[in-house]
Records
---
Amino acid sequence: MKPFEYLKPSTLTQAIDIGRQPDGMFVAGATTTLDLMKYHVWQPNKLIDITGLPLRGISFKNSVLTLSALETMTAAAYHPAVMQHFRVISQSLLLAASQQIRNVATIGGNLLQRTRCPYYRDTSFRCNRRNPGSGCDAVLGANRNHAILGTSDQCIATHASDLCVALVALDAQVVIQGVAGERVVPLTQLYRLPGAAPEREYALLPGELITAVRVSASAATRSSTYLKVRDRNSYAFALSSAAVGLDVKRGVVKQAHVALGGVGTVPWKATLAETYLLGKPATREHFTEAARLAVTGAIPQKDNAFKIELVQRIIVQALDETATSR
Amino acid sequence: MSIPSTDKPTRPLVGQAINRITGPVKVTGQARYTGEQTWANLVHGVLVGSTIAKGKVTGLDIQAAEAVPGVIGVMTHRNRPPVTAQPPPTQGGGGGTVVLPLSDTRIHYAGQPVALVLADTLENATYAASLVRVQYRAEAANTELSKGRVRAQPVEESKRRGNADAALATAPVRIDATYYLPIEHHNPIEPSGTVAIWEGDQLTVYEPTQWMKGLQQALSRSFNVPNENVHILTSYIGGAFGCKAFTWPHTLLAVAAARLVGRPVKLINTREHEYVAHGYRPEIVQHYQLGADPEGKLLALKVEVHASTAETDDFFTPQLIGMPAMFFSCPNVLAQGYTVPLDYGMPTAMRAPGEVEATFALSSVMDELAVKIGRDPLALHLLNYAEKDEDHNLPWSSKELRACYQVGAEQFDWSKRNHATSSMQDGRLRVGWGMGISAYPTHLSPSMAKVRYLADGQVLVQAATQDLGTEIYTIIAQVTADTLGIPLAQVSVELGDSSLPASVSTGGSRATASVLPAVLATARTLVQQLIALANTDPTGPLFGLKKDQLKGVNGRVVSIADPNKSDAYTELLKRCRLPYLEAFGEHLPPGMGATERSELMAGSRPSIGPEISGHISYAYGAVFVEVKIDPFVGQLHVTRVVGAYDGGRIINRKTADSQIRGGIIMGIGMACTEKTVTDHRLNRFVNNNLADYHIPVQADVPHMEVHFVDSIDKIVGPLGSKAVGELGINGVAGAICNAVYHATGKRIRSLPITPEKLFV
């Protein structure tokens, strides 16, 4: 990898101050960063290690879960409040990566997890996300694992995270600290569709740091499921996945959360499906229709038309399991 | 199988389950692998590979790389020291490929080395390598087998008996099925690599090679120095599966670079480079046609195999047509292979090359026939059992396949199978049971060994072979300890050094059957020498007795007539003031003599098998598999595997069991997850890492039971062992596909079985 300067600030202010400069990059668990630096995809001059910052702790107060940015995936997955009130979050974490990775990868880093598109990860391929304007080798390439939702002719890379799918489903909010202070935005607003500028992946300003994620508990977060289909039974990215949460009273859906993984260029909030389900009887027939609505606008690539069918089945099964498992 | 305790082993040790003797040094990190070798003044090399598959290098800018601090040099086609190409295995040599690296500007395959950056640290070399700028003039290339088939070349040797076409035309029942297998990579956990040290014209090379004598010969010829000037060291290997069997470009480049810079060079492949460094299992399409009578007795078998190869050279594994010709009894057989040249680097042998693809197809096609006529597939296997090798019209050396079918079926509870498809369920999951077959030919090579008995009772065994990690160390120690009648703990085994007595390549599952007879012969010679010492030492208790009145028992020379009269080996050596006594010995397989002995010593690979002494020798197995499938989302779980095997005499039930389990797991990978993905527009592999290329992980590994049926092959050698290493992978993929059909009614003929193939 390219030689770099290693910095380890001890306060948030210091970190943001260094991070504002154009040649710096924050790093926490480094499970993705190290790979991408070894592949010369990222070549920061300054690597800013934020693991010395006071961004730890998991709390559950007034029905609001706060996951601090530097908590590990493992810690979050096994936290009693997460397991009890946010089943889908715990499941999404435990179905992600490997135990070894989960032990060091952080919640904040996971929100900014980069795509596994092979054309992004090898600098000898053309990639608009890595090298703006160079073209996209994935569009005509091996794209079985690529996105069918939120794509553009510039980029079809999937967002790789499982956790983010669960968080987006449950309408999580992300706490961001910057020069101008703290702001709290819906997590969905953190992610930018590739459009004409796939290199701008996240709505973060220079120096801004994610400090925490917040989610509110409800009947629909307690009764929730993450269902992931992949090419092997562990340590594989989702071919397709669904995070769902349901509040069903007397057979009728009072609240619904649905988001999709492995199919979108961003963690994909299936708003049409959620809206449709409200007030509907919790039946397979309605779940099937919700799934159909969830893939509205899907565009298959050369090798992945099956995902349109697969993800709908996953949604139906996840909703079915959630509705019947209470 | 329950493994008996190894705490207090009784005699003989051969046949028992013995813990691996290198276990402690491996789990404590003391076992040093090639990548861990350090050397004063060491230079680290990092390769730059071509990003095009075919064409020419038109520009090579190394200035920025050379400017990186710590960079010692950049080796390209402009300054590479002379290297003589070695013929590939297809031409009887030990070179992996005919493409000699950094010879000129011609590009034959993506990933072909175009530069080797040399620096004081791995980090500096890696960074500098990223700064090498290469311009190419790309030419149209093709890596698609379907497109390349117009240029298919028939393989010279075909299999033919009776008249398959005529018999097919009139057969009452016919099956016509085509089976597709993608490219797969070996993916050993230890990447290949080389540490090369020149001292004048003396070359020392550390390398995890499956064939140290072959590497020694290849390097001596490539660099024009005498064979004895080349010293290969391979203490431990972290898996190989065929990719470390031959001499590949990275090794030649490391040795050439060490000559160029006049310092020791270490070149360890990156994981990404592993996918283009040393071959792969080629893409293979097998078209099978069966003709049978209404009961399922085979009348005709016709096979046409298309296998990918490189544009630069032919590679075809003959067992692709050999297996269908030998496995079942069938009067009319025609099997023909074709090679399809593609713009890849050379393919190579990968665990059970030819056998595993053929047993996948044979297991599948027999199941298709069973389904068609509504019979139990096991009954069809028994109905078509080959009582002799009909291909060569020779008897088997031994064959306990019937026992394998019986034991495997019993242990699996096969008789409880409802043969109707989709007939078994576990809640929402569909359950399927399937079976597959395994066979692997016995290969034998000559081997030598040295056994040294030290006055303190310690014994050292030496041979210039190598351990893949499968633990030939332990079985050598078992045979030695049994023959000398001493505890296992007194035996040390030294391998992995080309200056030791010449021994075999570890490939073709030949090591056990080839090396152990040499160790046995040598240890017996040593006993004779001890006897000769005992009856000639005037101060000893056995002085004057005749040789044939004495024998070696439990570490002593003993009088046969009066067992109370004996002389312990240790006492004998001390009395004679000998620090040690040692014996050299060898074993030559039937029909081999002085020619093969000198070939072995020179680094060639004399080999016989499966035809041995007028017999055909194979190891066998039958494997039974249970799968559970969620048909709605296409998720497949292999939940149970039971296999029964005839490998001849099993020397160590524990390490043999381990080998079979590893093979089964690799078979599960082949069936369910493994595929090297090519971008056919750019003609490059894109899933070239262990996150995206899916070898099975623990969660994919089900409950497994391995059974060995009683079998000692009297033809193959004094110990009666056939082959184990490549036996376990066979039949697994076919059994899984058959189980999937049983569960769902979906016939999968194209691997791997990814979720989208299983939607119901």
Note: Residues 1-7 of chain B have pLDDT under 50 and may be disordered.
---
Amino acid sequence: MRAGFYGSIARLSDTVRRRLFRFWLLFLLVGYLVVASTAMSEALAAQNWEQVVTAAKKEGRVVVFATGGQVTRQVLMTFQSKFPDIHLELIGGRSGGAVIPRITAERKAGQYLWDLYIAGAGSLTLSLKPAGFLDPVKGALILPEVLDDNKWYGGFNDGWKDTEKKYAYGFQGDVSDNVWVNRDFIPEDKLKAIDELVEDRWKGRIAWRDPTTGLGAGASHAGYILAVRGEKFFRDFVGNTGAFAHDQRQVAEWLIRGRYPIVVALTSPALQPFWDTGIGTNVKPLHWASPDVPDRVSAGTGVIGLINRAPHPNALRVFVNWFLSKEGQEVWVKHTNRNSRRLDVTKIPETAPRPGRKYFDINVEDNVHFQSTASKIAKEILK
Amino acid sequence: MDAVSVRLWGRQRLTLQDVFHWTLLGVVVVAVLYPVVLVVLGSFQTGRPGQETTYSLDAWRFAFSDPALLLSIWNTLTVGVTRQSIALVVGILLAWVLARTDIPGSYWLEFLFWVAFFLPTLPVILAWIMLTDPEYGLLNRLLALLPFVEKGPFNIYSFWGIVWAHLVTNSIAIKVMLLTPAFRNLDASLEEASNVSGANNFLTITRIIVPIMAPVVTVVLVLAIIHSMQAFEIELILGVPIRFFVFSTQIYAMVQQEPPHFPAAMALSTMILGLVLPLIALQRWVTVRRRYQTITGQFKGQKIRLRKWKFPVFFLVLGVALMITVVPCVFLIIGTFMKLFGFFNVSEPWTTMHWRSVIGDPVFIRSTFNTVFLAGGTALANMVIFTVIAYVVVRSRFVARMILDYVSWLPVTLPGIILGVGLLSLFLGTAVLRPLYGTIFILVTATVISTMTSGVQISKSNLVQLGNDLEEAARVSGGSWWQAFRRVILPLILPTLLLVGALGFISAARNVSTVVLLATSYTKPLSMLQLDFMVEGRYEGAAVVGVIIVTITIGVAFVARVLGLRAGLHQS
């Protein structure tokens, strides 16, 4: 009698051997079909992609609105060097809302001139989506690597900022520190946690980026604090404010020079130029006393939306697929110093979300109301 | 122009001149009233973008429900009255000294005030913050070294700091720019007659000079009041941190909301319009109630000798001019070569990386070209169009010239971004202009409209000073209207014409709020490239662009100045 696997097969009856054979045959067939269909869909996707790129080249341009300045422009112009036959027309603005009257007036006059919109979630979910100006983002996504759940933090669908999960996709994800302290002026033992900032001894020593407008970093940070700690804490916190300003550079200088040694709603990229020149190195983030309070995660100005009736639909698809691919997101991270939600690109460890931790996403549409409520309260106290 | 005419009814005839006048009125009314009416109507609109438009008072209720509004109006009034009072007195005195006395180098001292006006506001404010910040300002730290000084006295973040910032940026400079040419056109025989009657220089200025200069002083004052209501850049940087809010920062806050509340911003802007209309009527009453002609066939241009006061006055004027020009210029240029603007204590604080970053930007060359085209086109268009409008208002018998005058005041009453929204609708809603949308010609049209008020009023004030006898003498001698205009009027108004052109050039080169909604990536001027840097908090890059804009503008103004000196009235 033969021993081992073949011996055990030989001991089975003919019927069982036949059934086992059919099972393996079926298994191999299914496996082949899966592999073949994947290969075919990738081949189809590649063929489809080539067709779209060819059509996009015929269209010749893609028109994008993006907030941010020279850095954002440099990032997006990398697309130009990758696809030189598709001219990128980029119009920038200080805020996402600034372009709304322009788009509205143009559409009223029958002019449909825009393809894409990259800005904060607020202008997409509060202005463009209710106006009916947006198309679903997923409809334009072709490349498998863009839709691969394994490539995105929390899966691809974790990036949606609107309630329908269709129109506003957040590709950026930073854990941003809310409060910064200049330890040259306030040593560690005098102030250990954000929770202490409601005490009277800090009255007049705290500065904010303007939290009263319902828009931008100030309102976003204000909304986060209101959401995680409640109205009483928020009111007491804002009540200790010494000053606020719209300009982040102005607020950063106050912090560095010690005019206001505690600052709220400043992002680390605003402090980077100071750190690069060797000053403000003792400016440190301040955290909550309890680790149970979730940190704030934000897409910042890294949310993308597709304008409907786009004049260059194929060029739009080439751009958005490139931009959300590994290559596009690597360029974004490199130039903006902000984290992408993609897992296969360079990470900025200080602000990268850590698996397993709880975070509060202030940008999703369901949480946006905290920003407007916080702004109203801040305005009531500060103005 | 009078020879060609068509009989209408009875004795009424329609001449070519009438056709021209009515066409001009039609074009100006459409170009100005269309966006203004849209802004007023927009203030009554409710409903989100893309949704059906309905009308209500909701936006007005929202705008006026802000508890900070009354205080902001009060702050606007106090800052405005304080700074304009000081600036007007100082401006009149400086203009009189530069135009009427024999201090040396008066023309080039006057040019220094032009340069002060051309400097971009933000870097100038940053320079003064560097000097007068209560904690780390250089002047305060220097004074604190003195044994009897505990703490430096200067605080730029205060009411008086805001007033000072306005005085050293635009308020005094613009008054000197506008008043000096008008003072130069004064007939010296008026002052001689006053002196012969026993009046000293002070009485001559207050009882003779200022009354006869009433049209131009009123225009300057009304323009100053309107600008006071709209000024916001300085208040945003210096006022918001100390919770000193003004009317214009309220409008700015409406637009910065998410979603932006343009109807409420338009409601507040309409309020400015309502407040300004009586001022326009006042200005018109002052202009038409009597004659202010100072340039006649017997014009005598002679300067007053200051004798022993000549050099003290010269150094005083030079000191003022250098303080508002050299101080900010030095810091502006220094700032472009600093790693961090205002931080002298970093290791190796100097760098050329900001210059390399700006000049190496792929859009820099195209933006520079766009700026030159935009500003140059605006300057040329302003010189021609505004002179024509001013001439029709002052010198013609056109029955609707008062309407033309009133309409030409309206563009300045609206804040830049609000005017931009109105102009957007004008260009998209007009079949003739729609094909130009997205081109640089639209930007030129927008900046011409936005600078119409100051250009027309300055031209008007100058034409009011010209006696009719000059033109009449030319016509009586057999010259046509065009020959009289070209050979007599034009040389006399050329300095003012060039001033209007220079102001149009700098306004267009610096304009952001009006063009931001109309520019594309192809037509983007340097001012929007500057905005790119400011959005990122990169003051140094923004300062580099500011230096480039100022250099271009000073170059053009210098040429205009030299041409203006060769033309115009020559004084002994």
Note: Chain B touches chain A through 62 residues (CB under 8 Å).
